[in-house]
Amino acid sequence: MQVSMKLEIRDTPGQLVAALMPISDAGGNIKTVIHEHDFSSDKGSLGVEVVIEIPQERLDALLKLFQERGITVIRFGEERMHYQQSVILIGHLIHTNLGDTVDRIDSTGFAEVTRMSLAMPAIHERSSAKCTIKALSREHMDQAIEILRDVSKQKDILMIEPLEF
Amino acid sequence: MAIRIALIGTGAVGRGILEAMTRKDLGIVLTGVADSRSGMIHPDGISSSDLLTRKRETGLCGDVSITADDVVRTAPYDVLVEVSPTDAATGEPATSYIRTALSRGCHVVTSNKGPVALHYHELKQEADKAGVSFRFEATVAGAIPILHTLLESLGGNEVQALYGVLNGTCNYILTRMAEEGLSYKQALDEARALGYAEADPTYDVKGIDAAIKLVIFANTVLNQRITLEDIDITGIDLLTEEAIRLAEEQDATIRLIGEIIPGKNLYRLSPRIIPRHHPLVVHGSLNAIILRTDLAGDLVFSGKGAGSLETASAVLGDILSIRDRYAGGN
Looking at A79-83, B183-187, B280-284, which range is the least confident one? Predict the structure, then answer.
């Protein structure tokens, strides 16, 4: 299962690594780490957002490890994708493996396709799809769009991006 | 004091200039004129209304033994007004005419995108050396005085971003697809029937025309040195009506938008999803531009991007501001 959590660590050298160690110790796989430099706390601590892949049965062990090593879990498994954008794809979407196109975003761990509307006017004609993407941050959204741009180029798909202004 | 001009090109823009000169006294004297097949030189002035009649009746503006080159080299003028059709690949013969006029110490005003997109920096340098003006307001966004605004009125600003709807043909097609539910092909056929699109619409619908305007913006007012190859261009010819319906589901539509972000070295022309009530969503063949600047903040411009009198308006503005600046002429 994929889980996101926000950890609070002390703002001293080596603390980030110390906080991430329990994850691999518990058999989890770290997909992404976002260091929040603007996390404000008078206790001299930092916020770190992590997304991990971990078998469900090992989750309790991980939380216990965090507790033992003095790492506070501030938030756990909440809605974490705050940034949303929609793009429209035009082309032979099904025949160029739409599943793979979506996977390229979903496999990043920092962005996912959460909704898709597809219009297929006729066999052999190009179809059009609106994909709604959610991402952890503005930068991650830019990266996700960049990935989709490359995929579109490879698959001869016309991608229409939103104008952000 | 009157200013003397020689007019090269009597197509839509040239006719618009002559019509405006016929309608009212602008203090402009026409001493030379040429189209692709004939020319005329008259130091005392040529009647613009007689010229329009002659062109309409005979298809010629003057004598077939006089060429445009003759007019550019020998007519007595203060400003060469070069409004012949654009050759985006070579910029000729317009570039040669402009060079000749500058070397004679004459000002140049043009609506021709070729020379400005391809050779702006050299031509500007030649004009500076000769102590004359080289102006080209009509090359982008027709009647909208955007270059003058950027160069003069916003002189102290840094342009952080420029977004524009810069091709009326594409905007007309997209408007009709959105408002009437037409297919791309139906909307294009309609645009052709109404004269908004050329018989060969490639130059417009593939985005070349709008991209050339981005090159002009970048090189002239943003002081860059780019070419058409530096612009990431996607046209509208592969858009589907379904894509527009999908955009409408979120109260948006699709428009062909030119984008320049100098700080990121970003030059892009592509169809974009844009909220239906966004200021860049103008209708029919209108153009629109948004600027983000450090001092003046955001500014929006819209107006007619093409048309005979509308483009002539931009050319005349250039001519008259040269007259005012160099009172007395050459």
Answer: A79-83
CATH of domain A1-76: 3.30.70.260
Structure ipTM: 0.85
- Inter-chain contact A88–B273, Cβ cutoff 8 Å? yes
Mean pLDDT for B213-227 is 95
Nearest to A161 among B242, B250, B273 (CB): B273
Length of chain A: 165
Residue of A88, A161, A165 lying closest to B246 (CB–CB) = A88
Nearest chain B CA: its distance from A21 CA (Å)? 38
- Who among B243, B249, B292 is closest to A160 (CB)? B243
Say if pTM beats, i.e. exceeds, 0.80.
yes
| Beta bridge pairs of residue B292 | B161, B298
Question: Which residues of chain A make contact with B164, given a CB cutoff of 8 A?
Answer: none
Dihedral sign computed on CA atoms, order B314, B316, B322, B325: negative
pLDDT in tens, chain A (165 residues): 778 888 888 878 888 888 888 998 888 888 888 876 655 555 677 888 888 888 878 888 888 888 888 888 887 775 567 789 999 999 999 999 999 999 999 999 889 999 999 999 888 899 999 999 999 888 899 999 999 999 999 999 999 999 988
Q: A129: which chain B residues are within 8 Å (Cβ-Cβ)?
A: 246
Residue A109, amino acid: G
Pairwise CA distance, residues A55 & B38, whole Å: 84
Please check whether residue B272 touches A, CB under 8 A: yes
Architecture of domain A81-158: 2-Layer Sandwich (3.30)
Residue extent(s) of CATH 3.30.70.260 domains in chain A: 1-76, 81-158
Distance CA B150, CA B33 (A): 31
- Listed in order, strand segments (DSSP E) in B69-205 are 79-82, 107-110, 134-135, 159-165
Flag whether residue B83 sits within 8 Å of chain A, measured between CB atoms.
no
